[in-house]
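Thread: quick sanity check before group meeting

JM: Hey all, I'm pulling together slides for Thursday and realized we never actually wrote out the predicted structure for the chain we discussed last week. Dropping the sequence here so it's in one place. If anyone has concerns about the input, flag it before I start.
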Amino acid sequence: MKAHDGMYIDGAWRPAAGQDVIEVVNPVDEQVIGTVPAGTAEDVDAAVRAARAALPGWAATPPAERAARLAGLRDVLVARADEIAETVTAELGSPLKFSQAVHAGVPIAVAGSYAELAAAYAFEEKTGNSVVHHEPVGVVAAITPWNYPLHQIVAKVASALAAGCTVVVKPAEDTPLVARLFAGAVHEAGIPAGVFNLVTGLGPVAGQALAEHPGVDLVSFTGSTAVGRQIAAIAAGQVKKVALELGGKSANVILPSADLAKAVNVGVANVMSNSGQTCSAWTRMLVHRDQYDEAVGLAAAAAAKYGDRIGPVVNAKQRDRVRGYIEKGVAEGARLVAGGPEAPREQGYFVAPTVFADVTEDMTIAQEEIFGPVLSILRYEDEEDALRIANGTVYGLAGAVWAGDEAEAVAFARRMETGQVDINGGRFNPLAPFGGYKQSGVGRELGVHGLAEYLQTKSLQF
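JM (edit): ok, ran it. Output follows.
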């Protein structure tokens, strides 16, 4: 167990204003592996002031130089990839191979993509008798979640820095260790003092102080829809820009012409990935009535193969929350075909990979985000019925469509009310915009659209 001291503010580790600490617990064995300072409003104020002081210089830095700094940061992350993976595995419980491929690999790719975008983006353009300037929005408050702890930091920080903004990050209290590691990487990469700042702490204290701070120009938040509403309300009082990436209840629509076995197996894998702690997970599988029983059998068999291959959820509260949803699914009449609420292990925050059949669209497990390894399989009558069910939640973050003919899948996907759709198992693309419709959020992350979130526009008429 290691006690980590200080906040990274203005290019150096500084003592925290208060004495309280946050314990970091390994979800596998429930042992405390470290502590970090619990930040206060005073810490937040110091970080925001440092970011404001650094803003003019960083905003005036030529885009090519900002790109070079981001490329250097990517290189440091590459060199530290093993340490990143091991850290995430320790504080999140993710299996090491998944941490290496995703928790370390994806942030490296995203950092590299913004190094390239910063160099290539047209920050100035001419239209008619006007010149349009795209300028940094200012100081960014980045409040990040625990499920992809480094990716969510990098997705916000790299795009903000590419735009010329300065940043204060408040990471999730469950996974602050990789955030501290990232601060060290920023320092090693030579990012100027004050451009990036890190304050660890609790959401209702440090997070709220950051969202409320008048020196913050934009709040970028990833997390629950409930907290997103609170942040939006705070920002509205100051007419402050927000970017919100919130909950999801994504539909995996398997059309009759699809390769059923492949679609089901990939769909189950998607839900079990990261122990179900993925906002864009395809947690509703929609299958035509004529193929329903076969799909249920395939899904149950696929889920049974996972067993101990998935890690725990992040903490005891989340474990109990997920089990509560499983119990509610049974109580409302859904049929368990894999898993259940019983603990698969005596120690650790584990939840059994769970699959429900006979789920109807009005059930709680078909409407609310569970954020655990739980799949609901729903039947549909025809394509219009499938579309109605797919669009029948308050969320619209992601989804998938499978069909024997790609054009058929694309035609269906175009009618889905969601921000991102994978066609026949399409691969993750770090340049594609990610974000939601409806209560899944406001704004986009990744690629050129993610960069645009951190810019404001000025036109000069001649």
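AS: nice. The two ends are 63 Å apart (CA to CA). Residues 96-120 form the longest helix (25 residues).
JM: adding both to the slides.
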